[in-house]
Write a structure and sequence with these properties.
273 residues; mainly alpha; 4 domains; two-stranded antiparallel sheet; 11 helices; extended
């Protein structure tokens, strides 16, 4: 595979076709030129239209290779970063959006916003997340209410009540492709598949700490190695939580997850909505 990035520039087809026509016609309206003219360099950046004209390659006829015509300049000078499998304009926009969002949150964390405002709540949550000294002092304190709630489960009704209380609209099958939930069940709310005039809740599978059923059931050596390392990880988490006899309790937890995995649909089946 060519190590250079393929560019998927957001250029409207109509604008590209107009540019193509301009590149194959002379200014006097005469017959098409045999060689397209290279665009003038625009030191100020994008054109007034918003199109990345320098990302094009006007030396190529659009009828011969439209991809090169539309993206050749960008393609030739852009390398895929070593930590990426793909790279393009959407990657750049994603990074820019993430940076701007981080800057907004950092600004909100300064505590200048009015008490109780959304900006103040966001800033306080961010500052709390970064306060490692306070986190260390609290130790397991914030988790103890959850521990007590789990320990209080004594029958199926109590279990159902607890699981229902954990439901969140934390999955999005169609738009974001988010199929994973930390809970035993995930909730997706969307337009009803049979009656799109209304919204309906969809209950989806969960309960696995590893990404999906393949990690528990796939017989490959790679998955077997991961499973062998997963049980000690569970034991280590139990020890950090102060659970007595953590090593002995880790194996039944992993086995329960394995049994849940046996009734899970595959990732491919889950995508067939």
């Amino acid at each position: 595979m060519n190590p250079r990035a393929r560019s998927f520039l957001p250029l409207p087809c109509a604008a590209l076709l107009a540019a193509a026509c301009a590149s194959t016609s002379s200014n006097s309206g005469g017959p098409a030129a045999t060689t397209a003219q290279a665009p003038a360099k625009n030191a100020a950046g994008p054109s007034a239209s918003g199109l990345d004209l320098e990302g094009m390659d006007r030396s190529v006829k659009p009828g011969d290779d439209f991809f090169r015509f539309a993206n050749g300049g960008w393609y030739d000078r852009t390398e895929i970063p070593p930590d990426r499998a793909v790279f393009g304009m959407f990657s750049i926009l994603t990074e820019l959006t993430a940076k701007r969002t981080a800057d907004l949150i950092a600004e909100a964390s300064k505590g200048d916003a009015p008490e109780g405002s959304e900006a103040r709540q966001i800033g306080d949550a961010y500052a709390s997340f970064l306060d490692e000294d306070r986190i260390a002092r609290l130790e397991l304190g914030p988790l103890r209410p959850t521990f007590r709630a789990v320990q209080a489960i004594g029958d199926q009704k109590a279990l159902s009540r607890y699981l229902g209380g954990q439901l969140r609209a934390d999955m999005d099958v169609l738009n974001a492709g988010r199929l994973f939930t930390d809970n035993l069940f995930g909730l997706w709310v969307a337009q009803d598949l049979d009656e799109p005039s209304k919204y309906s809740p969809f209950l989806l599978q969960g309960g696995l700490a590893m990404p999906d059923r393949e990690y528990y059931l796939n017989p490959s050596q790679r998955m077997a190695d991961l499973r062998a390392r997963y049980t000690p990880h569970v034991a280590a988490m139990l020890k950090l939580a102060g659970v007595v006899d953590a090593n002995a309790k880790a194996a039944p937890i992993v086995e329960l997850e394995r049994q849940i995995a046996t009734v899970h649909a595959s990732r491919t089946e889950s995508s067939e909505v």
